[in-house]
Every structure is written in structure tokens, then in C-alpha cells.
Design brief:
Helix 1 packs antiparallel against helix 2 and helix 2 runs antiparallel to helix 3. The model has no long low-confidence stretch (mean pLDDT 95). This protein is 47% helix and 13% strand. The protein has 5 helices and 3 strands. The chain is globular and about 35 Å long. It is an alpha+beta fold. Strands 1-2-3 form a 3-stranded antiparallel beta sheet.
């Protein structure tokens, strides 16, 4: 169970969420880092959870990703590069889980604080 607080939300990822790491193309690993290394991994976990349950809209989910990376000390260039990448290319991932949303809403809890 992992919990984060960001932009007025409490987000909890419960046991059972299948996290595949940050979605970083292999050719960028030498610049950004690999999917399971770096101080962006926690933010990527919550971002994937937000995309899976679709409780919040995509833009807000991406802003939470950006906020959590800043909180975790990801440098300005890297965090904005990753944020702009999910803004540019994330719609397919956000829209791909439609049939699994009810399952993910039980695993990913979001409340306002």
C-alpha cells in the first residue's frame, strides 16, 4: 500500500496493482534513466494508477505526476521532459484501460483532502 498527497488529493495504491515501471523508451534510458531507477519511480507508480482508474481527468493526472516528481527531487529538465512526454503521448495509455476501470477503482483510491 502506497499513499501520496498532491494538489488536494490523497491517492492510495493498494496491493494488487501491476506496476510496470516508468514508460521510458529504451533509447532514452541513458538520458532519463530506466523504468525502475531514479527518483521519478514513485511518481510514475501513482501516475499509472491514476491512468488505470480514470477517476481524475488526464490533464490533472499528469499535473499530479509533475507535482510528485518535484516533491521527490526530480530535476527541472528531467521532470518537465517527462511531463511533456505524457502530455504529448499519454492519451492512448489513458484510454486503453476502459474495460478494466471497475477493477482498478477498487485498487486505486482517490479522495480529496
Amino acid at each position: 500500500k502506497e499513499t501520496a498527497f498532491s494538489l488536494g488529493y490523497r491517492i492510495t495504491i493498494n496491493k494488487g496493482f501491476d506496476f510496470d515501471g516508468a514508460s521510458i523508451p529504451k533509447w532514452l534510458w541513458s538520458i532519463i534513466g530506466s523504468p525502475f531507477t531514479g527518483n521519478y519511480v514513485r511518481a510514475a507508480l501513482f501516475h499509472d494508477g491514476l491512468y488505470a482508474c480514470c477517476t481524475l481527468d488526464r490533464k490533472l493526472s499528469d499535473e499530479i505526476f509533475l507535482d510528485l516528481m518535484k516533491e521527490d527531487g526530480v530535476g527541472y529538465f528531467k521532470r518537465y521532459s517527462m511531463y511533456l512526454a505524457v502530455r504529448a503521448f499519454g492519451s492512448r495509455a489513458y484510454n486503453s484501460n476502459q474495460e478494466d476501470i471497475p477493477v482498478y477503482k477498487e485498487i486505486v483510491e482517490i479522495t480529496t483532502i
